[in-house]
Structure formats: structure tokens, C-alpha cells
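TASK: fixed-backbone design
INPUT:
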């Protein structure tokens, strides 16, 4: 059994609420531990610790000392790589091969990259002419924003939490993290790392719990929180933005997606199939950037669907530690029920099920896990709910198109605006189309290729703001302009 405790002011604690909830394995459905639920007293204690730490040794550190400490955090995560890997796999059930290549290395890298960013990104300087001819010099100074609330999701728990905590700490802030109730373990474990490398008490705090009437809502409503950075569903983001409006607290919102893949007839077919397989099914389809709508130019449509189906039917669902496993389960039985409801809806809306569409037969102790079959549909009208709403599972619908203008219109006909993946060997077309899709990130002949110096975020219902590189500094610091009359 692995229990999750809060981490407040450098100490692990059960808190005072006396409330716990069970953590279940998505692989087998069995209980793997309990999670201590934080309510207002735990959140108050964590925010007070974070506030106090701003004035302690952390606040007095030089940038060189602070960034060296973040390098040490990354090195310690890597030294304890297997502990983080085991914890992430226990919570999520994702294949070890995936978590060891994506989740844990990125969890560590997020600290180093943003330590480098704060050291290397300059602020602006302007010389202003004045009537007396002497002029004035303006220059910007960045200061930490203060106490940052980090609300994170379950799909890439360590990666997406450190994507916020890394830059927040690099900029000199302190944080209170509320990880997803589904995946508390790697966030809790990070407390040990912070203590090992000597990060001062109160700089990194963790309170577990749910959203409404629980740690999430108490944290985002807390008046002593200066900024809220959130990753999760759009409707949760809407609630948090309302909470942040009181006291005009700053928000960074990374929310849902309904991303289009666009495959032109001149694409390298092998690359387009391989990329679409990853973008539709990696992490069992639980990636916000994943492709749930695939548009394929009509001359290659039948061939593309046949090849995608053949490869999908080669995917192996299985235990995280089995080296042959390509796909794990969904995060929970609750999420399984949601994905299955979309599989039913797709049929009701008139879809042709090319492959999948239900629960697979899983042997032995896997029978009670949150498994679903990777699924491909065709034949739905663009107005179908399955084409409009985010499913967040291993599913995609494939639609034929005839012209560039038509596919751009279809790709943009969504409330979301997170990502797209365009497959073509025609360079001009690639640039032309990429610039016309209303998204935060447009990949050409790739997917989830990340350069952490670049802007990341979404348009429309996919979010507010951008993080990554200098954009993270924009959110995690306050910029003061100093104007010196010469
Ligand atoms: P979710 O919105 O259900 O939960 C996210 C976090 O918010 C959890 O920690 C949850 O406890 C907390 N929360 C819920 N209600 C709250 C409230 N009222 N107040 C404060 N906190 C609250 O999302 P999820 O199911 O964990 O994650 C899946 C969703 O996240 C998908 O929609 C996916 O697209 C999105 N996502 C987006 C990105 C991105 O970068 N844009 C990345 C990953 C996931
Ligand atoms: O790679 C990242 O930095 C990032 N934020 C990825 C988001 C993935 C969504 O599930």
C-alpha cells in the first residue's frame, strides 16, 4: 500500500481533516493506497508556509544559487528515476516504456530548462529623448509574482506539474500544488527531492484532494494566492477563472482540445500513419494535444483508413511492465464509462466502426481494469457530437476532404484551439496551411515534438495565455519598469 500525504512547510503530514479517499489501480481495479484529503485548514497552512518562505532564505537567494538548486532537483529526480517511474506507473497504469521516455525525463528537464531561461532572457531597455536633451533610460526588472497555486491533471502527472513548478520556482516564487486526485504519488514524492537538495521549507507545498468543496476550490479561492496556473478540462478552467476574479488574481489556463490531423495526398504515407497512430493512441489517447479528428485527402482516404486500421489492430493492451505492451488502460473506471458513452453515441450518430468500439477481453487480474479498445470511426457528419466534443480516449474519426480551403474550414470549425498535425511533403502548402489553423501549436510532419523555449497554450476554449520559454517568465513574474532621468 502506498499512501499519499500532504507536504507542507517541508514536512509530510496527514493534515487535520481526518478525511481520506482510496486510490485504485487502473490496471486491475484493486486498491493501491489511500490519499489524505486536504480542506481549508490544510490549504491555509500550505499558503501561509509559501507566503513565509518568500521572505526567508529562498527570497534572499541569488539567481545563481536558486538556479543551481533547481539543477540539483532535476539531478535528484534522475537519481531516483525508478522511484518516480514506479509511482507514476502505479497511479496511471501507463506502459513503463512510455513513462521512462516521456514522463520522468521531462519531469526532470522542466527544472533545468527554466533555470536556464531565467538566466538568459533579457528584459527590455528604451532610451527616451527628453526636452532638456539629457534623456531618460527605461529598463525592466522581473520580480517573483508571489505564491502560485498549481492545479494539475492526471494524464501526464509529473510532466505537467513540473512544467508549472519548474518555471515558478526558477522565477523565485513559492508554490502550493494540488495534484489530481487520481494521481497523487509523484507530486508527493517530489517533496522528498526538495528536502534532499535543501530547498527551503515552504517553497514547495502539496495538498491533496478533489476540486469542488475540497483542496482545489479552497486553494484557488485563497486570497493570499497571487497567481493560479491550471491544466485540465475547460469547464473546470471556467470555474477557476471565476474564483480568480475575486482579487484580480492572474491565471494561466491550459485546457481541453479537439485537435485535427490533416493528411494531404502528397504526404509521406509511412510517416503520416506512424504519426497519426501516436497522436491518436499514445497514453491511451489521454493527451490534450492528441488527434481525435483526422482529415485525409480523398485520393488516399481508403488506403489511409485501411493502413490505420491494420496498425491499430496490432496494438497490444497490457500490463505496464510487459515490454510488448503498447497501450495501458484509461485512468479510471469513471473515465472508462465516459469514453464508452462516446463509443455508444458514435454508433447512434451513424458512425461506421472501422475497428474497436468497446471493452476488450482482458485476462485474469486485468479484467477489472479500465480498458477500452483503440477505436477508429468514419462516416459521421461534421456536426456530430463525437466530432465536436473532447473524448480524451484512444479514438479518432477519419473524414475525407477535397480542397485545401475545405480542410482548413473543417479543422477550424471547433470551439477548441490547441494543436494540429499537418502531413505533406509540399513545403509551401505546409507553411500556408499551418498559419491558417487557429491553434496554439501546429506541427508539420511530426507530433508532440517539444522545444520548451517556445510558446505553448491554446486559443478559444483551449486556454488563456502561453507558457514556455519567455512566456513562462511573463506569467510567473511581475515586470517593473524603472525610468531613470539622466
Ligand atoms: P479536470 O479539469 O477534471 O481536473 C484537473 C485538476 O483540477 C484536478 O487536480 C482537479 O482536482 C482540479 N479541479 C477540479 N475541479 C476543481 C475546482 N472546482 N476548483 C479547483 N480545482 C479543481 O481535468 P482532468 O480530467 O484531470 O484532465 C483531463 C483534461 O485536461 C482534458 O480536458 C485535457 O484536454 C486537459 N489537459 C489539457 C492540457 C493542456 O496543456 N492544454 C494538458 C493536459 C490535459
Ligand atoms: O509538453 C508540454 O509541455 C505540455 N504541456 C504537454 C501537454 C500535454 C497534454 O496532455
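OUTPUT:
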Amino acid at each position: 500500500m502506498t499512501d499519499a500525504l500532504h507536504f507542507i512547510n517541508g514536512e509530510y503530514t496527514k493534515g487535520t481533516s481526518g478525511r481520506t479517499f482510496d486510490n485504485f489501480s487502473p490496471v486491475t481495479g484493486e486498491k493501491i493506497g489511500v490519499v489524505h484529503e486536504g480542506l481549508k485548514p490544510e490549504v491555509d497552512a500550505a499558503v501561509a508556509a509559501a507566503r513565509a518562505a518568500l521572505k526567508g532564505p529562498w527570497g534572499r537567494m541569488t539567481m545563481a544559487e536558486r538556479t543551481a538548486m533547481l539543477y540539483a532537483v532535476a539531478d535528484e529526480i534522475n537519481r531516483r528515476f525508478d522511484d518516480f517511474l514506479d509511482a507514476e506507473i502505479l497511479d496511471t497504469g501507463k506502459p513503463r516504456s512510455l513513462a521512462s521516455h516521456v514522463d520522468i525525463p521531462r519531469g526532470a528537464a522542466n527544472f533545468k530548462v527554466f533555470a536556464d531561461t531565467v538566466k538568459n532572457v533579457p528584459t527590455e531597455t528604451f532610451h527616451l529623448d527628453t526636452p532638456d536633451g539629457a534623456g531618460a533610460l527605461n529598463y525592466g526588472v522581473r520580480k517573483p509574482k508571489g505564491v502560485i497555486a498549481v492545479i494539475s491533471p492526471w494524464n501526464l502527472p509529473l510532466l505537467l506539474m513540473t512544467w508549472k513548478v519548474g518555471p515558478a520556482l526558477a522565477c523565485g516564487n513559492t508554490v502550493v500544488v494540488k495534484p489530481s486526485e487520481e494521481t497523487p504519488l509523484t507530486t508527493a514524492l517530489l517533496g522528498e527531492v526538495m528536502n534532499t537538495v535543501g530547498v527551503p521549507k515552504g517553497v514547495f507545498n502539496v495538498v491533496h484532494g478533489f476540486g469542488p468543496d475540497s483542496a482545489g476550490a479552497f486553494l484557488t479561492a485563497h486570497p493570499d494566492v497571487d497567481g493560479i496556473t491550471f491544466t485540465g478540462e475547460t469547464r473546470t478552467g471556467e470555474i477557476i477563472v471565476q474564483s480568480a476574479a475575486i482579487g484580480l488574481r492572474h491565471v494561466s489556463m491550459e485546457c481541453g482540445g479537439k485537435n485535427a490531423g490533416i493528411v494531404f495526398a502528397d504526404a509521406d504515407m509511412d510517416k503520416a500513419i506512424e504519426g497519426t497512430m501516436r497522436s491518436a493512441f499514445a497514453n491511451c489517447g489521454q493527451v490534450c494535444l492528441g488527434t481525435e479528428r483526422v482529415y485525409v485527402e480523398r485520393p488516399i482516404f481508403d488506403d489511409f483508413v485501411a493502413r490505420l486500421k491494420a496498425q491499430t489492430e496490432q496494438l497490444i493492451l497490457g500490463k505496464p511492465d510487459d515490454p510488448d505492451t503498447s497501450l495501458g488502460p484509461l485512468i479510471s473506471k469513471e473515465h472508462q464509462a465516459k469514453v464508452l458513452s462516446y463509443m455508444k453515441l458514435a454508433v447512434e450518430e451513424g458512425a461506421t466502426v472501422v475497428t474497436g468500439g468497446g471493452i476488450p477481453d482482458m485476462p485474469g487480474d486485468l479484467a477489472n481494469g479500465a480498458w477500452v479498445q483503440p477505436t477508429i470511426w468514419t462516416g459521421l457528419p461534421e456536426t456530430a457530437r463525437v466530432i465536436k466534443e473532447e473524448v480524451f480516449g484512444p479514438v479518432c474519426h477519419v473524414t475525407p476532404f477535397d480542397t485545401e480551403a475545405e480542410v482548413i474550414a473543417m479543422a477550424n470549425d471547433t470551439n477548441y484551439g490547441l494543436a494540429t498535425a499537418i502531413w505533406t511533403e509540399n513545403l509551401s502548402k505546409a507553411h500556408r496551411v499551418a498559419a491558417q489553423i487557429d491553434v496554439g501549436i501546429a506541427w508539420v510532419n511530426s507530433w508532440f515534438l517539444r522545444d520548451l523555449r517556445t510558446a505553448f497554450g491554446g486559443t478559444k476554449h483551449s486556454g488563456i495565455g502561453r507558457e514556455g520559454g519567455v512566456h513562462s517568465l511573463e506569467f510567473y513574474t511581475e515586470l517593473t519598469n524603472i525610468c531613470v532621468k539622466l
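COMMENT: The chain has a mean pLDDT of 98.
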